[in-house]
Amino acid sequence: xxxxxxxxxxxxxxxxxxxxxxxxxxxxxxxxxxxxxxxxxxxxxxxxxxxxxxxxxxxxxxxxxxxxxxxxxxxxxxxxxxxxxxxxxxxxxxxxxxxxxxxxxxxxxxxxxxxxxxxxxxxxxxxxxxxxxxxxxxxxxxxxxxxxxxxxxxxxxxxxxxxxxxxxxxxxxxxxxxxxxxxxxxxxxxxxxxxxxxxxxxxxxxxxxxxxxxxxxxxxxxxxxxxxxxxxxxxxxxxxxxxxxxxxxxxxxxxxxxxxxxxxxxxxxxxxxxxxxxxxxxxxxxxxxxxxxxxxxxxxxxxxxxxxxxxxxxxxxxxxxxxxxxxxxxxxxxxxxxxxxxxxxxxxxxxxxxxxxxxxx
Amino acid sequence: xxxxxxxxxxxxxxxxxxxxxxxxxxxxxxxxxxxxxxxxxxxxxxxxxxxxxxxxxxxxxxxxxxxxxxxxxxxxxxxxxxxxxxxxxxxxxxxxxxxxxxxxxxxxxxxxxxxxxxxxxxxxxxxxxxxxxxxxxxxxxxxxxxxxxxxxxxxxxxxxxxxxxxxxxxxxxxxxxxxxxxxxxxxxxxxxxxxxxxxxxxxxxxxxxxxxxxxxxxxxxxxxxxxxxxxxxxxxxxxxxxxxxxxxxxxxxxxxxxxxxxxxxxxxxxxxxxxxxxxxxxxxxxxxxxxxxxxxxxxxxxxxxxxxxx
Lengths: 361, 310
Known about the structure:
- Chain A has a single domain, classed as ABC transporter involved in vitamin B12 uptake, BtuC.
- Helix content of chain A is about 70%, strand content about 5%.
- Chain A has 14 helices and 2 strands.
- In chain A, helix 4 (about 60-85) packs across helix 13 (about 300-325) and helix 6 (about 120-145) runs antiparallel to helix 7.
- Chain B is mainly α.
- Chain B has a single domain (about 5-115, about 135-295), classed as ABC transporter involved in vitamin B12 uptake, BtuC, CATH 1.10.3470.
- Chain B contains 14 helices and no strands.
- In chain B, about 50% of the residues are buried.
- The interface between A and B is large, with 49 and 49 residues.
C-alpha cells in the first residue's frame, strides 16, 4: 500500500518541478484526446507548442500575438495571486475585466471626437476605477455581511456580461454603425487608442502594465509588510489575527488589487486588440487567468512564464484549428486539463509517498 | 406594455419547470456539503450532463436513457474531483474550479455535432381527471416525470438525513471527520460516494435543461445555473426542503422576467435577464448577514482536508 506522509516544510524542488510535470502530462493526455478526435497527436502538439514560435510560415504573424495574449492574462493573474495566497477567492475577474473595459471606453467615447494627450490616461484611470468598483461589491458584502465572496464574485460575471450586451446595443452603440451592435472602433480614434508600440512585437501599453505589475508584485511579496501579511494569513489565519493582521482589511485590499488590474486589462484590450465594445469582446481571459495564477505557483515570475505558455496554447490552438481543423473547444478542454494535472501533482510538494509496511495488528 | 397577458396559472406551472434543474443540482450539492466537501464544479458537471444526456437521447431516441447517461456522466466527472480532493488532498476550491473549466470545454467539444437538433420529446404525464381541475390541474398535475422526481428526491434526502443511520454517519463525517474516523467510519469512502451522488444529481439537472426546458443543445447553455444551485444550498441553510423553496424562488424570478420581456415592459431585455443573478446575490446577502442562522448550520468540516495519520 502507498501512504502519504506530510512533509515538515513544502519541498522547494517539487514546487518548481510540478508545473513542468503538469505541462508534460497535459501534452500526453491532450495527445490522447486529439488522437480520439482523429488527429495526429504528435503533429497537433507540435503545431500548438512549436510552430507559433519557430515555423517559418507562421512565426512572423504569431510571435507578436504571444505578447498580445499574454499581457491581459499576466495582468489579471498577478492580481488574483494576492488573494489566492491569502485564501481570498476572487473568481469573478472576468466581470471586473468587462466593467473596466466599459467604463474606460465610455470615458474615451465621451470625448469623441476631441483630441488631447490627456484622454488616454483618463481612460486608463477610469478602467482601473471600473474594475475596482466591481470588485468592491463582493469584498464589501463579505466584510459587512459575511457573504461568500466566491459565489458573489462569480455571479457578478453574468451580470457584467448582460451589462456589456446592454451597452453595445444601447448607450455605447456607434451612432454611425448602421444599427449594428458595438461601440465606435478605437482604431479610428487615435488619441484614445492603444496601438502596437514597437512594430512587429505585439507590445502595447497593456503588456507594459503587465511587466510593471510583475515587478510590483515581486517587491510587495518579498520586501513589503503587506506581502508578509498576505502569506501569513494564507498559511495560518489564526496566527495572522494574533499578529495584528486585520482580516477584513486584507479582503478589501486583495479584491482592490485584482479589481484594478483586471479593469486595466479590460481597458487595454478594448482599446487595442479588440478595438471596440461588442457583445463578445471579452475572450474569457478572466477565467484562464485563474489557471495561469496556479500554473505560476502564485509567484510573480512563475505567472509571467505561465502567462506566456498559456498565450501559446491560445495561438497554437488557433493554428491547429486552421491546419488540422481541430475543434476550437478542444483547446479549452486542454487548458482545463492542465489545471487538473497541476493540482494532482501538487500533492508531491506537501507530501512524501511512502510504502506502508503491512501493520501487524 | 400589457401585463394582463401574463397568466398566473401558466406562470406558476412554468416556474416549477424552471426550478427543476436548479433543484436537482442543489439537492445533490447539499448532500456533498453535508459530508463536509465543497464542490464548486457543479456548473461543469451540469453542462457535461446536459450534453451527454442530449447526445444519448438523440442517438437512442429515448429521453429516459438520456437522463440515465447524464447521471452517469456527472458522476464520472465528479470522480475526478473526488480523486483530486480525497486521495491527493488537493485544495477543494481550486479543484472545483478546474472541474468547471474542464467541463465547459469538454462539453463544447462533445456537443459540436449536436447544435440545432431537436431532442426526442419527453412525454408529460397527463392524469385524466386530475389535470382537468381548473387552476390546480395545470399547476400540479400537468408536468413531466422529472418535476415530480426532483421533489421526491428532496423528500428522500430529507428523510435519509434525518431518520436513518446512513444519514447520521454522513452528517458525522461532515461535522467532525476526525471523530468519525476514530469511530471507525471510512471518511474518504463516504465522501467519495457523496461526491458521486452530487455529480449524478448535477448531471440530471443539466439534462433537464437540454432535454426538456430549452430543449436543444447550445454551448455554455447552463449559464450559471450551477453557481446559482451552490448559492441556493447556502440560502437553504443546508436544509432539504428549503432547497425546494430557494429553487422555486429562483424559478419564479426567471419565469417572471421572461414574461415581462414578452409583455413588452419598457426595460432593455438585458437588465431583465440579469435579474435572477441579482436576486440570488441579494438572497445570499440576507441569509448570511444574520450570523446565527447561516454559521450555525454550515457543516463544521466543510472544505477542510482530511488526512488520516493513523
